């Protein structure tokens, strides 16, 4: 075997080491058993999560009578779009969807701005009081004022039954701020700040032009955290909102799922469908699917940043 053939053979062996099947074969008996058990457990967990989701989707596309009788499994029975037709003709759905989109988009924007503006100065080493101030934020993670004092503050500030009651009380998360600060400390070298100073860059310009672009991975993760929190939030709306025109989609979903409260008069031409037995069940499943779609659509776009951002922001330091 000449030198060229030997080089090719070594390259093939190195390539084989990256093969999962090759790695599995090279493991000892105990490691193989552990790997098999791990895969079985993970498969069971995936099925525990996936099967109910598939059942809900199947029920949302099935006939009302099939849903009531429990005949629907993982595949729709007598497929129909009547459930989604009822959802899209339900006026409260559109009001809640509009409000939830606004609270999610605007609220997430406020969250990111507040988080970055707070995390950046606490990440600077020349800010000597950063550790002491950080302790105040950590303190709020373990001790809070409670529901009643918070409600009294919101009332005194005249925020009750306004959109600001859904934005200001949750303007920033201390946990997410600490993750963002840790990312800045471990991922952005101090030499960049010194170079910016030499070029006449102000601290605010450095934040906007250097720090924010370099923090895209962690900001993508925080956008997902904040957006999902706003989208799923209903407790603040229950406490602070009174007008139906301000209620988010989760309150509408709660009325249908828990209280079984469906206002038939708000379904327009779907009155005839509303009189049929099983509409509420069909509407429940269809509304669950529709309300879950935005989060399912957003996640793939930030998935590539998710692991990187969380690992760098939460593990290092």
- Please trace the helix and strand order, writing H or E for each element: HHHHHHHHHHHHHHHH
Q: Please mark out the parts with pLDDT under 50 across 5 or more consecutive residues, or reply none.
A: 269-275, 313-317
Question: What general form does the structure show?
Answer: globular
Mean pLDDT: 78
Strand portion: under 5%
Major β-sheet profile: none
Coarse structural class: mainly alpha
**Tally of separate helices:** 16
Number of strands: 0
For the record, give the distance between the C-alpha atoms at the N and C termini, rounded to a whole number: 51 Å
Radius of gyration: 26 Å
Could you explain how this protein is built, in words?
The protein has 317 residues and is mainly alpha-helical. Helix content is 73%, strand content 0%. The protein is built from 16 helices and no strands. It has helices at residues 3-17, 20-26, 29-60, 64-69, 82-88, 91-123, 130-142, 147-156, 174-187, 190-198, 203-214, 216-232, 235-240, 249-257, 271-274, 279-314. Helix 5 crosses helix 16. 24% of the residues are buried.
List the topology elements.
Layout: H1 3-17, H2 20-26, H3 29-60, H4 64-69, H5 82-88, H6 91-123, H7 130-142, H8 147-156, H9 174-187, H10 190-198, H11 203-214, H12 216-232, H13 235-240, H14 249-257, H15 271-274, H16 279-314
Essential attributes:
single chain, 317 residues, mainly alpha, globular, disordered C terminus
Short description:
With 317 residues, the protein is an all-alpha fold. It contains 16 helices and no strands.
